[in-house]
Amino acid sequence: MEIGSGPIGPCPKEHQKIYQDWFNLADSDGDGRITSNDATKFFAMSNLSRTELKQVEACYVQTRQRSGSAITMVPTVELTSDSKRQGYLGLTEFITAMQLVSLAQAGHELTLEVLKTASDKEDIQPPVLEGLDTLVAKSKALTTNSSPESNGVAQPQPSNQWFPSKSVKKLPLNAVTSIIDGLKRLYIEKLKPLEVAYRFNDFVSPLLANSDFDAKPMVMLLGQYSTGKTTFIKHLLRCNYPGSHIGPEPTTDRFVVVMSGPDERSIPGNTIAVQADMPFSGLTTFGGAFLSKFQCSQMPHPRVISSLRGHDDKIRVVLNKADQVDTQQLMRVYGALMWSLGKVLNTPEVVRVYIGSFNDKPVNEAALGPMGRELFEKEQDDLLADLVDIPKKACDRRINEFVKRARAAKIHAYIISHLKKEMPAMMGKAKTQQRLIDNLEDEFAKVQREFHLPQGDFPNVEHFRDVLNGYSIDKFEKLKPKLIQAVDDMLGYEIPELLKNFRNPYD
């Protein structure tokens, strides 16, 4: 099929083939369009400066306007415009942007006059992209690895399930670029249909968006006022951030997300919660009162635990401003803190507490002596090393959380379908529903015995009962074995295959 030329100039068939191949490489999820994140990564291979890329983006706007197309610019992301206000690039738009990049690499100043001259030319050569050969080779290697045969000999398939399905539709690894990308594809194709069918998002956890997979890991600081949270962030960044204020009174009256961005600005909570590339859309369930006390502070900077229980491995405790007391008082404070943490976390392990004074002022050696200074420096080095290691751990944690979510969704589907099966066909539905809700513990036990499920994986009965009261059980779906089997195949075959073919990018 011949591809229509973009609004700049004609595109020969041989270039169309090149751009089609490049488009497929940039389209990480294989849905026929390039998202903002994919576009940013791909166009970065042109080695154009940020200023040049912004000029290309501005000229892209002009070319689309010349062709009579309406466009929308995605904030803070280069080359992610489209002609349908969707926040992505189609193939035609991709070719147009590539031609502009080629002109910029040739040293042309991208003005309307240059664009008009380029429109009259028969040919604009594809741009030079650094690292493209490596990306192509990797894609070919994945295609080879995902082939069921090698040198004409059929390869054995994994069989780590007790009751494997007769026909397993595997995730095409040649369409996947990383572990996270593979998990995202598996969620959309295998797990999300099960969640939607049995309203998992209403009972357990909201449906996942792309940002839940693509977003960078974050660090949340919790503590009373004037314990040094803002000072700690400034100490790591070595500069101020938008909206920061330090004082002895309660100065931070809101939840603040400090994150890297192209410009220095503060974004209100209602705005940041609706941005598709940010993982905060779930906060809209708390309403406008919460969002009015929530903000994002963005700044161009390379460095920068909503729930304690159940996420103990994510918690790092900092005993800050420790140089304001002497050694004896510090021992007493440390002991009291450890005792309190033991009651809060309710775990037999001793949590690591980093002791120090995380600010830019010298340590008060008059209170602690020279050994206190040495201790604080070592503690700070350990904490910073732990923070730097977060991206590596985040990949493993996402895999772990994804598997836990899949198991929880399966159990939820079994519970909902069991309750649906218990409902009468005609008379007495209201009375039966109330009986089921009142005896929910017994119904959970029946499901556990019937499907041989671990008791510890079942949801909280009281919470489940509260949500169930707002629904008519008779309207739920019956058990759909195909949806359950798809999740079983994903857990037993596809995730292990994904981990075998891709490594943690931070290893």
Automatic annotation (TrEMBL):
<keyword id="KW-0547">Nucleotide-binding</keyword>
<dbReference type="Pfam" id="PF18150">
    <property type="entry name" value="DUF5600"/>
</dbReference>
<feature type="domain" description="EF-hand">
    <location>
        <begin position="14"/>
        <end position="49"/>
    </location>
</feature>
<dbReference type="GO" id="GO:0005509">
    <property type="term" value="F:calcium ion binding"/>
</dbReference>
<dbReference type="GO" id="GO:0005737">
    <property type="term" value="C:cytoplasm"/>
</dbReference>
<protein>
    <submittedName>
        <fullName>Dynamin superfamily</fullName>
    </submittedName>
</protein>
<dbReference type="InterPro" id="IPR027417">
    <property type="entry name" value="P-loop_NTPase"/>
</dbReference>
<dbReference type="GO" id="GO:0000166">
    <property type="term" value="F:nucleotide binding"/>
</dbReference>
<dbReference type="InterPro" id="IPR011992">
    <property type="entry name" value="EF-hand-dom_pair"/>
</dbReference>
<dbReference type="InterPro" id="IPR000261">
    <property type="entry name" value="EH_dom"/>
</dbReference>
<dbReference type="InterPro" id="IPR031692">
    <property type="entry name" value="EHD_N"/>
</dbReference>
<dbReference type="GO" id="GO:0005886">
    <property type="term" value="C:plasma membrane"/>
</dbReference>
<dbReference type="InterPro" id="IPR040990">
    <property type="entry name" value="DUF5600"/>
</dbReference>
<dbReference type="GO" id="GO:0016197">
    <property type="term" value="P:endosomal transport"/>
</dbReference>
<dbReference type="InterPro" id="IPR002048">
    <property type="entry name" value="EF_hand_dom"/>
</dbReference>
<dbReference type="Pfam" id="PF16880">
    <property type="entry name" value="EHD_N"/>
</dbReference>
<dbReference type="GO" id="GO:0006897">
    <property type="term" value="P:endocytosis"/>
</dbReference>
